[in-house]
Amino acid sequence: MSLKKTLKPIKKRIKNSNTAFATIKRVYRHLSMYTDKEILKYYHVDNIEELEEHIESIKKTLLYDNQSKRDKLEDIDSCFCLDGKKEFKYLYKSRKDAQKQIEYTYRSKKIRLKLYPCPYHLGWHLSRY
Ligand SMILES: [Zn+2]
To answer: Which of 2, 8, 18, 104 is spaced 20 to 30 A from 75 at the CA atom?
Structure first.
């Protein structure tokens, strides 16, 4: 009996983490071919707990925040994607603009960036290799 009890929290954890990855793969179909590890990298999080937090914060914003706040986000062409410092990422409306920024960053700081499509909005984000 006691063995069953101790296993329960572990089982629950595994179930939750599978759900988080499954949710992302279902909702964002372009990520469906990614491995779990690639998904963590995609969202710039280190582990499943951080990924779940990120999902929850997005859900909260989408479900409970008032419409005006969402309209405001639309106005500034932003989305809910976070960078490594948990700040919102800049959303480039055109691939060309993102490309220009990549060239500029490389010329001025010798930092190589890559672009990828935002999973929530029409636009592009930059991330480090
Ligand atoms: Zn985004």
So the answer is: 104
Lowest mean pLDDT among 30-34, 60-64, 87-91: 60-64
CA of 119 to the centre of ligand 1 (A): 6
- In the reported structure, the alpha carbon of residue 13 is separated from the centroid of ligand 1 by a whole-number distance in angstroms of 28
8 Å CB contact between 114 and 102 = yes
Q: How close is the Cα of 54 to the center of ligand 1, in Å? A: 12
Domain limits, the chain: 1-64, 77-129
Q: How far is the CA of 123 from the centre of ligand 1 (A)?
A: 7
**Does 75 score more than 80 pLDDT?**
no
**Would you say residue 39 has pLDDT above 80?**
yes
Is the model's pLDDT at 1 over the cut of 80? no
Q: How far apart are CA 114 and CA 124, in angstroms?
A: 10
Q: How far is the CA of 84 from the centre of ligand 1 (A)?
A: 13
pTM for the full predicted model: 0.44
